[in-house]
Amino acid sequence: MAKIDKLDDRKKGDRLTAQLGLGAAEQVEATGACLTPDQLADVATNHCSPEERKAALAHFSSCRRCYDAWVGVSLSLVAMESGLERRKRPLLSLRNMGYLGSAVAIAASVVVFFNIKGDLIQTTMPVPAEKALEQVQPSEAERPEQQLLMKEEDNAPSATTPSAETRNKAKRAEMPLAEPAAKSVVGKSVPAPMAPPAALDQDTIRLEAGIVITSSGWLSGLERYCREKRYHENPAQWNLLREEGLQLRESETDTVLMEKLSAILATMNVTTELDEVIVQCGVILPLLAGEDKKE
């Protein structure tokens, strides 16, 4: 089918080329009026009589404009016919089925070839001889002697396993040595386990930090905390100092100390950031130094 289609296209092209060459060779003066588009289409599609076609070809040889129009219409018709024929061809045509069958046959032949080759390799390769394991069995004459030897070996004391007397002696020698060790352990006093740091109450933390639960002691402890830069070791203690200052201000009866506590607590904010604690200490230290000068 594919060859027939190609031959038809080639014949149409050859026919059109011959007609174009004939029209170009027979150029004479224009004869007759120019053809209309309908007449050009009839001539291009061979829907006219032989006389009309002959007159049109004679006119084409003398009129360049009609000749170019006829060539354009003919080429357009050839292109349209070839495109429609290709579209009409079904996908499952004989040609496509032939291509598909050829591909399947080639794949099947390759698979069969490799299978046969593998079978030939397996059959032609020499199989290694299997060596049978021979079990050496003693003769009847040797069996009684072997049994006697085995009994003697069982009754003989082994070099690695100690006898019962040896084990008893070892136990007697070990018992006196174990008693003093036990007495020494009992005589020693076992120290009490230390409490974890989390079990310490707030009072212990305050005592270790050197903070006295009085207004003046609190002021000195705050100054020591900022001046000695203890915030590097424990920034979270800043919040404890602030809470104690608030409690002391509520319970303080001295008006002067209450004003001092209020002025200092106004600059103290709750924070756990080291940078903020450093800034607040820098503000509080001049206040404490100024109050000491006043006193």
TrEMBL record:
The chain crosses the membrane at residues 96-116. Keywords: Membrane, Transmembrane, Transmembrane helix. Residues 151-184 are annotated as: Disordered. This is Zinc-finger. It comes from Desulfopila aestuarii DSM 18488. The lineage of its organism: Bacteria, Pseudomonadati, Thermodesulfobacteriota, Desulfobulbia, Desulfobulbales.
